[in-house]
């Protein structure tokens, strides 16, 4: 006893999964259907097993199916036979059996399965007609069971258990012992490889035992196909166990069973789905095709690490979330419609929908309820609200207001559209908001009193401000009204409607911590009584985050509330210090399953709530919430996506550079109605962790060569974060950076260095030769340049000497010319003086005498010897100037040549006139004529022209 107590304590200390100890009995757990179109395999699923990491394995008609929470994969047997059985050991090795074949599968490191057949250890003739219908793993032995024999596999050897010629049905493992049913001998226990009959085996003779489950510490619960349940004690005493569903189980034909958490048992049947009972034999749940299963024939059953029940059906696979705090009633037929309001009243549950008012018996949250909703007569149409007023149930309907009495409607008001009721504190009155305004009712008993004529607008919200003042309104307008004359009349004190400057939509008026708040599409507002204006409730809005846009606040108790934001529900607690604690995960599975702005949540007890849905309702038990640690993700596949999608088989994950585009798929074997989210980080590529997302794979393209480490973690809807899974992989360098290429580069570099040095030595020698030759050439060039410079100097000196000589010549010419000018001037003066000369008597000289003297003077003027001497000297100084000029301009006459010589000597007109013995005017005329002969442009100076010759 102490040993079991210690084991019990250790279980709760070290188990990572903490479950509630009861299953909700009202409604139906969420059932996730996996059709063959989803898992892409055969209809029938003969066996289900769960690996230690949570992967689901199914024995399918077309092979072994695996599901990791994200991806279904099918692995056919080599002989293409049906897989009839499956089991998984503690190391994750998957054993399967079919016709004439059994063996085990091992999961590859990054996706895929590798099969090893062990049926080859048996003679082919002994097994070829056998089908393995069940596999049991006990200690280090694997039992592969057919109806004729059981093959026991241990240490790569197989031995066979037979029943002395009798066929078997199924083996069972319970409380550490192996049991076999022989037909017709009955139940036997395997003891040291021998089958020993159970004491009361005759009681179960030919009853077809289909499950044996632990029942307490020493007892075993036995399930038979059509004869009900039995209890066997440790001594082999067997007694029938009568339960409330004994008849139903017999008629449904029990096929399998498992123990689930909290001391419950789930039995799969051939004809009527799954029955769940407790240890007292009470029916807790019945799940069949009517309320969620795809098919009523349960071929196999198992539970996962979260205590979800998995059932392999004759057509499909379903997951039943019995550990969820939310259970459902779904109207699959569509007769009820969308639920707008609900009430539990006098042992019945009422649903107000767009189709009318429906009723079904209600046994309470702690009893099994088999709902059968019926439409209350004359209730067809829209039901807006159900309110329990005193001991009466009042229905606000499209056609008026009714009392619900004995499942009939009695009309108490013909005013249409009873949207809402609000009690008036301190009185027996209550107000109703309806299509045309406000109505007054007496609540003891409920009686219609009057419809107020002063307000003609639709009123959907009513909340008492104080005394006789109320806030009323609809989505377009909020009014503060005051009732007077004993609630006989009403007047409007203030009104706030939608305007271009105030385009708010109003969703309701609610009391939050004794303050009235107004829900709008821009957050919560409060009314400032001093300035008589609405203003944002900034304090609460900031603390609520996205739930500031809630359209409804429903009180739970004390300082706790439901905040509803268009079908998204959060449980909010306002602490005494003013802090706001938000839990938006508990009811995530209900998001988008309710009618927006008409959400309905009513308390059944302090912990259990009924929530209206689009096609039924949900029951939420806050005490049934589970704390489950989510397991770290597994890397399910790695594909190369460089050219199509191809799995990467290399477990070393060394990827060619040209295939540097990969897809990594991952999954957390976490099975819930709300999806898991993932976050990844690629070391060597990412700068930070990614955002949380539901996508279960990530593509990485154009990765540079090098080493990478991929990390991924998962987060459940409840916010639990798993440990990190990581893998490392390598993108190989491009071919030109591979080790072969590098070796080639080294060899090539060595050769280049060797031959380079050799070539460099030759190049140095050649260069030295060229340098020497260049130096010699430079020396020769220097010598030649020096010689040239010396020659240039000599030429320059010679030219300078010639120039000097020329200058001397020019000076001599100039002096000669000036002498001629002086001579001519002297002759002219002499001529003038002779003209003035008189004799002693004062008479001028005789003209004849003067003529002879003048002739001598003229002869002196015309003497060409001076000119001939001048011409000779001028030609010597100016390089045959006259000869070249005469050759170029043959029309020149001697006087023209004289004028050219004098102009070249840069002599003035006056000096030239004296030399030529003419007037200055005559010189100008001769210059003009000379220009004409030489064709000199007018802008060109004549002296410069002659100097250039």
From TrEMBL:
TM spans (from-to): 735-756
GO molecular function, one term: phosphorelay sensor kinase activity
Domain Two component regulator three Y: 676-731
Xref: InterPro entries: Ig-like_fold, Reg_prop, Sig_transdc_resp-reg_C-effctor, WD40/YVTN_repeat-like_dom_sf, Y_Y_Y
Record keywords, A-Z: Coiled coil, Membrane, Phosphoprotein, Transmembrane, Transmembrane helix
Coiled-coil residues: 792-819
GO BP annotations listed: regulation of DNA-templated transcription
Pfam families according to UniProt: Reg_prop, Y_Y_Y
Classification of source organism: Bacteria, Pseudomonadati, Bacteroidota, Sphingobacteriia, Sphingobacteriales
Protein name: Transcriptional regulator
């Amino acid at each position: 006893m102490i040993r079991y107590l210690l084991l019990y304590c250790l279980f709760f200390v070290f188990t990572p999964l903490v479950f509630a100890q009861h299953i909700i009995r009202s409604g139906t757990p969420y059932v996730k259907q996996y059709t063959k179109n989803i898992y892409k395999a055969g209809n029938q699923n003969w066996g289900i097993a769960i690996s230690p990491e949570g992967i689901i394995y199914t024995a399918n008609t077309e092979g072994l199916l695996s599901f990791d929470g994200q991806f279904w994969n099918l692995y056919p047997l080599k002989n293409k036979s049906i897989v009839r059985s499956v089991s998984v050991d503690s190391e994750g090795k998957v054993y399967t059996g079919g016709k004439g074949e059994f063996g085990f599968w091992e999961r590859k490191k990054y996706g895929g399965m590798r099969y090893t057949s062990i049926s080859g250890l048996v003679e082919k003739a002994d097994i070829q007609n056998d089908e393995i219908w069940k596999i049991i793993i006990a200690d280090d032995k694997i039992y592969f069971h057919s109806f004729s024999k059981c093959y026991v596999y241990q240490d790569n050897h197989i031995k066979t258990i037979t029943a002395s010629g009798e066929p078997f049905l199924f083996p069972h493992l319970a409380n550490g012992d192996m049991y076999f049913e022989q037909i017709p001998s009955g139940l036997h226990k395997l003891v040291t490889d021998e089958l020993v009959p159970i004491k009361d085996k005759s009681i179960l003779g030919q009853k077809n035992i289909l499950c044996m489950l632990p029942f307490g510490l020493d007892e075993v619960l036995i399930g038979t196909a059509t004869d009900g349940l039995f209890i066997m004690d440790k001594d082999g005493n067997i007694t029938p166990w009568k339960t409330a569903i004994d008849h139903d189980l017999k008629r449904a034909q029990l096929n399998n069973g498992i123990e689930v958490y909290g001391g419950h048992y789930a039995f799969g049947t051939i004809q009527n789905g799954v029955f769940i009972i407790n240890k007292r034999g009470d029916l807790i749940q019945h799940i069949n095709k009517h309320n969620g299963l795809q098919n009523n024939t349960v071929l196999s059953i198992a539970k996962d690490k979260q205590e979800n029940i998995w059932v392999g059906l004759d057509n499909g696979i379903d997951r039943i979330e019995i550990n969820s705090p939310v259970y459902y009633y779904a109207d699959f037929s569509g007769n009820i419609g969308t639920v707008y309001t609900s009430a539990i009243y006098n042992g019945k549950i009422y649903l107000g929908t767009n189709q009318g008012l429906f009723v079904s018996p209600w046994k309470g949250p702690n009893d099994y309820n088999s709902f059968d909703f019926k439409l209350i007569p004359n209730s067809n149409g829209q039901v807006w609200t159900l309110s329990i007023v005193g001991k009466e149930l009042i229905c606000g309907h499209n056609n008026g207001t009714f009392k619900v009495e004995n499942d009939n409607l009695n009309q108490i008001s013909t005013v249409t559209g009873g949207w809402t009721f609000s009690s008036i504190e301190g009185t027996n009155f209550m107000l109703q908001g309806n299509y045309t305004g406000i109505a007054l009712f007496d609540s003891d008993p409920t009686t219609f009193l009057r419809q107020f004529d002063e307000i003609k607008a639709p009123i959907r919200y009513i909340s008492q401000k104080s005394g006789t003042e109320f806030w009323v309104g609809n989505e377009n307008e909020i009014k503060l009204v005051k009732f007077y004359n004993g609630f006989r009349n009403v007047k409007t004190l203030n009104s706030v409607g939608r305007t271009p400057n105030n385009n708010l939509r109003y969703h309701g008026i609610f009391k939050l911590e004794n303050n009235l708040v107004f829900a709008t599409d821009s957050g919560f507002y409060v009314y400032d009584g001093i300035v008589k204006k609405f203003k944002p409730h900034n304090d609460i809005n900031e603390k609520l985050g996205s739930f500031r846009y809630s359209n409804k606040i429903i009180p739970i108790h004390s300082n706790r509330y439901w905040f509803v934001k268009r079908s998204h529900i959060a449980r909010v607690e306002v602490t005494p210090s003013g802090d706001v604690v938000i839990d938006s995960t508990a009811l995530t599975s209900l998001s988008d399953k309710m009618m927006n702005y008409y959400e309905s949540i009513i308390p059944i007890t302090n912990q259990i709530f009924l929530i209206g849905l689009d096609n039924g309702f949900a029951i939420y038990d806050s005490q049934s919430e589970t704390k489950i640690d989510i397991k770290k993700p597994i890397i399910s596949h790695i594909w190369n996506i460089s050219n199509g999608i191809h799995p990467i088989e290399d477990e070393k994950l060394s990827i060619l550079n040209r295939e540097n585009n990969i897809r990594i798929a991952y999954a957390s074997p976490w099975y819930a109605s709300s999806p898991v989210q993932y976050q990844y980080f690629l070391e060597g590529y990412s700068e930070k962790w990614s955002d949380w997302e539901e996508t279960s794979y990530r593509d990485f393209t154009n990765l540079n060569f090098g080493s990478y480490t991929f990390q991924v973690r998962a987060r459940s809807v409840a916010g639990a974060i798993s440990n990190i899974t990581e893998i490392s992989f390598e993108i190989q360098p491009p071919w030109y950076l591979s080790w072969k290429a590098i070796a080639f580069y080294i060899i090539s570099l060595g050769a280049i260095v060797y031959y380079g040095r050799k070539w460099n030595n030759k190049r140095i020698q050649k260069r030295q030769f060229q340098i020497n030759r260049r130096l010699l050439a430079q020396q020769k060039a220097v010598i030649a340049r020096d010689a040239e410079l010396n020659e240039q100097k000599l030429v320059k000196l010679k030219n300078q000497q010639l120039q000097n000589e020329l200058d001397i010549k020019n000076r001599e010419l100039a002096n000669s010319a000036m002498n001629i000018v002086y001579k001519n001037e002297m002759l002219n003066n002499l001529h003038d003086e002779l003209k003035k000369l008189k004799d002693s008597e004062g008479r001028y000289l005789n003209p004849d005498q003067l003529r002879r003297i003048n002739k001598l003077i003229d002869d002196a003027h015309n003497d060409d010897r001076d000119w001939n001497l001048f011409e000779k000297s001028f030609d010597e100084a100016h390089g045959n100037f006259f000869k070249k000029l005469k050759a170029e301009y043959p029309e020149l006459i001697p006087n023209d040549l004289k004028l050219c010589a004098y102009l070249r000597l840069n002599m003035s007109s006056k000096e030239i006139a004296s030399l030529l013995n003419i007037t200055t005017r005559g010189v100008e005329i001769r210059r003009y004529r000379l220009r004409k002969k030489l064709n000199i442009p007018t802008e060109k100076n004549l002296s410069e022209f002659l100097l250039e010759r």
